[in-house]
Amino acid sequence: MKCTKKKKGQKMKVIVLEHPMNSDWLKAKQRALVTIGLTTEKAPAEDWKIKMLKCRHSPIRKLQFAFLILDVPYWLSTELCRHHEGIEKYVKSQRNDRTKEETPRAEKPQGALVNMIIDVNADSLMQIMNKRLCGNATNEMQELMLMIREEVLKTNPEFNQFLVPMCIYQNECKEFRSCGKKALYFGGNNDL
Ligand SMILES: [Zn+2]
């Protein structure tokens, strides 16, 4: 019998293809300022970036990320595909007529590994993290979110306080059944 679960030790990999640069932050600030009749040619300072991310106003949709995710289980890619606004997903097809793979599509397991690219704006990324870093998300999704978070913070530390579970962002878990801070984000236990 084939194992359809992710095998222990199997590693997904996240590669950042695009992330907001200072020039993108300038574009976001210009969009914020035009609403009050002003403009600028100077990229914003760190504290302005954090204020803008905190209020989640529309100019942050100008900040775009792109991630290449390698060896993601097919079932996990479908969880990501649930997200809708501000995100596009490109997943390797399982159509064996197109990919010339021998195994018929209907016989491929849920755990078959695929590669995907997601294009996502900052507003959407923060919302996805709030939900998918929750302890109610699957462990694999939490792991993937933590990997993306780690990569983002290498280039964009201004996102640190925003790529967090809902327990932190809204100060409580809003799920039907609270995860009780059992998320991997907190170390996977509820003693915190
Ligand atoms: Zn939660």
Descriptive notes:
The protein is of the alpha+beta class and 192 residues long. It has a domain at 2-20 and 63-97 and 110-186: Alpha-Beta Plaits (2-Layer Sandwich). The protein is 34% helix and 16% strand. The chain is built from seven helices and four strands. The protein has helices spanning 22-34, 46-55, 74-80, 96-99, 122-132, 139-155, 166-169; strands spanning 13-18, 64-73, 87-91, 113-121. A four-stranded antiparallel β-sheet has the order 1-2-4-3. It is globular and about 60 Å long. The termini are far apart. The relative contact order is 0.15. The model is unreliable at 1-7 (pLDDT under 50). It binds zinc ion (ZN).
Secondary structure blueprint with pairings:
Layout: E1 13-18, H1 22-34, H2 46-55, E2 64-73, H3 74-80, E3 87-91, H4 96-99, E4 113-121, H5 122-132, H6 139-155, H7 166-169
Antiparallel strand pairs: 1-2, 2-4, 3-4
The chain binds zinc ion (ZN).
Strand content: 15-25%
State the oligomer.
single chain
SSE order: EHHEHEHEHHH
CATH class of the domain at 2-20 and 63-97 and 110-186: Alpha Beta
Helical stretch tally: 7
Order of strands side by side in the largest beta sheet? 1-2-4-3
Mean pLDDT: 91
Radius of gyration (CA) equals 19 Å
Structural class: alpha+beta
The main β sheet shows up as: 4 strands, antiparallel
In whole angstroms, how far apart are the ends? 41 Å
Bound ligands, each once: zinc ion
- The CATH topology of the domain at 2-20 and 63-97 and 110-186, please? Alpha-Beta Plaits
Q: pLDDT below 50 for ≥5 consecutive residues: which ranges?
A: 1-7
* Percent in helix: 25-40%
Overall, the morphology is globular
Number of strands: 4
Tell me which CATH architecture of the domain at 2-20 and 63-97 and 110-186 applies here.
2-Layer Sandwich
